[in-house]
């Protein structure tokens, strides 16, 4: 028997990326709450042909946040290796799917293409990875543009607590 044990750093020495795991982070809150609201809205609307939506988004440089969200969720329905679940508002916890979105957005915020590719590979089967990556990048840009223009209309979890 050999000592082929990988040494991992202790939890004390590793600072977690709190933008990924902490619900109180404003940018994560706005994006995840926005996705929760969009997902709930998309549940009550007729399902769109997501391949057609991808083509329209690729041609149209001004696709909306809702168009990207619908296409991303359609791609995850088609090529996802696990179900994407969104919690109801105003839940402070993140579902596995919401944590995945937060991690993907953090990778894109940090220009970390390797982590982004690994996260896409973790969530989608091989035939849909390129399309999902394209759509998630577009969704990230749509959120950034909406935040820049103060047009999201999405509250943070703390703001929801003050109202409720």
Give a quick rundown of the structure.
With 164 residues, the protein is mainly alpha-helical.
Folded structure, characterized:
With 164 residues, the chain is mainly α. α3 (50-59) packs across α4. Mean pLDDT is 76; it is low at 1-23 and 155-164. The chain has 8 helices and no strands.
Keywords:
single chain; mainly alpha; 164 residues; 61% helix; disordered C terminus; 8 helices
Q: Terminal Cα separation, in Å?
A: 60 Å
- Integer-rounded radius of gyration: 17 Å
Q: Helicity range of the residues?
A: 55-70%
Secondary-structure class: mainly alpha
- Give the biggest beta sheet: none
Number of strands: 0
- What gross morphology would you assign? globular
Low-confidence stretches: 1-23, 155-164
Write the topology of this structure.
Elements: H1 18-21, H2 26-44, H3 50-59, H4 65-79, H5 96-109, H6 113-123, H7 129-148, H8 157-163
């Amino acid at each position: 028997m050999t000592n082929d044990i990988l040494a991992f750093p202790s939890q004390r020495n590793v600072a977690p990326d709190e933008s990924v795991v902490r619900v109180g982070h404003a940018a994560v809150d706005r994006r995840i709450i926005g996705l929760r609201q969009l997902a709930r809205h998309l549940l009550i609307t007729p399902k769109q042909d997501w391949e057609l939506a991808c083509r329209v988004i690729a041609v149209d440089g001004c696709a909306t946040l809702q168009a990207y969200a619908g296409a991303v969720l359609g791609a995850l329905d088609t090529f996802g290796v696990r179900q994407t679940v969104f919690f109801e508002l105003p839940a402070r916890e993140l579902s596995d799917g919401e944590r995945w979105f937060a991690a993907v957005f953090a990778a894109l915020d940090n220009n970390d293409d390797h982590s982004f590719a690994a996260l896409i590979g973790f969530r989608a089967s091989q035939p849909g990875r390129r399309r999902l990556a394209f759509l998630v990048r577009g969704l990230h840009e749509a959120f950034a543009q909406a935040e820049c223009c103060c047009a999201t209309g999405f509250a943070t979890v703390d703001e929801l607590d003050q109202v409720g």
